[in-house]
Specification:
A 7-stranded mixed beta sheet has the order 1-7-6-2-5-3-4, sandwiched between helices. Helix 2 (33-53) crosses helix 3 (79-88) and helix 5 (124-139) packs across helix 6. Strand 3 (93-97), helix 4 (106-113) and strand 4 form a beta-alpha-beta unit. The protein is globular and about 50 Å long. By secondary structure, it is an alpha/beta fold. It has one domain. The protein has helices at 2-28, 33-53, 79-88, 106-113, 124-139, 163-172, 213-224, and strands at residues 57-62, 71-74, 93-97, 116-118, 144-146, 176-181, 197-203.
Length: 232
């Protein structure tokens, strides 16, 4: 019963508050992309506040999270990390599925913010477009974040990485910081009920540039799945 009440309060508070942030972004988005980025950062902080005080979820980071010119590769288990990236990094440029940019209102804000559209089914031309967008964001001093599994996966599962990671790793020539997260334990994909507990980010060892595709993928895959066996 407590879990259901917490989850209902979170849904009402977060989604109502999110509408205000969307309207705020629309109202001030004409000014500069920086204004939209500030609104988005405040939205992420609001989300962190809601999960802490309404759902009873704490967030911890294990390991040192380096800041700078890196390609950050993150495990994807729930909506949590897609929003919380803005709490971990300063104005991160996150790779998002191309079709999300077609959503009315949200798509325009996403473009203005500087998210990077990812075409999952395209080939070399899409990778070149992705590389150009990433290079532009790096020049702005922003972190590049990618969810290499392509979609949210249930906690405990470890599907192979999508091909886009290896291509981007090769094209950008950036060291990789793999990050595991176990958000799916307490906020499962597609579930209304969200549990109290601790969400952990575990930062893996930096993967240097220049590795062959199989070795780089193997290291990233292992690092982002190290929390798969965690229990509440």
């Amino acid at each position: 019963m407590i879990t259901a009440i917490r989850s209902l309060l979170f849904m009402l508070a977060f989604y109502s508050g999110s509408l205000i942030f969307v309207l705020w972004a629309i109202a001030f988005g004409w000014a500069t992309p920086l204004m939209v980025q500030r609104v988005a950062t405040n939205w992420s902080r609001f989300h962190r506040f809601c999960i802490r005080w309404l759902l009873g979820q704490k967030v911890v980071v294990e390991g040192d999270l380096p800041q700078g010119a890196y390609l950050y590769i993150i495990k994807h288990e729930s909506m949590f990390e897609t929003i919380d990236m803005l709490c971990l990094f300063d104005r991160p440029a996150i790779g998002a599925k191309r079709e999300l940019f077609d959503i009315p209102l949200w798509g325009g804000i996403a473009r203005r913010y500087g998210l990077i559209p990812v075409e999952r089914t395209a080939g070399a031309s899409a990778l070149r477009t992705l590389r150009a967008a990433a290079k532009d964001r790096i020049a702005q001093g922003r972190a590049i974040c990618l969810f290499p599994e392509g979609t949210r996966v249930p906690h405990g599962e470890s599907p192979p990485l999508k091909s886009g990671f290896a291509g981007l790793y090769s094209l950008l020539g950036l060291p990789v910081v793999p990050i595991a997260v176990d958000s799916g334990r307490v906020s499962p994909r597609g579930k209304f009920l969200k549990q109290a507990g601790t969400i952990t980010y575990k930062v893996g060892e930096v993967i240097p540039v220049g590795l062959d595709r199989r070795e780089a993928e193997a290291k990233v895959h292992a690092a982002i799945n190290v929390l798969n066996q965690s229990i509440l």
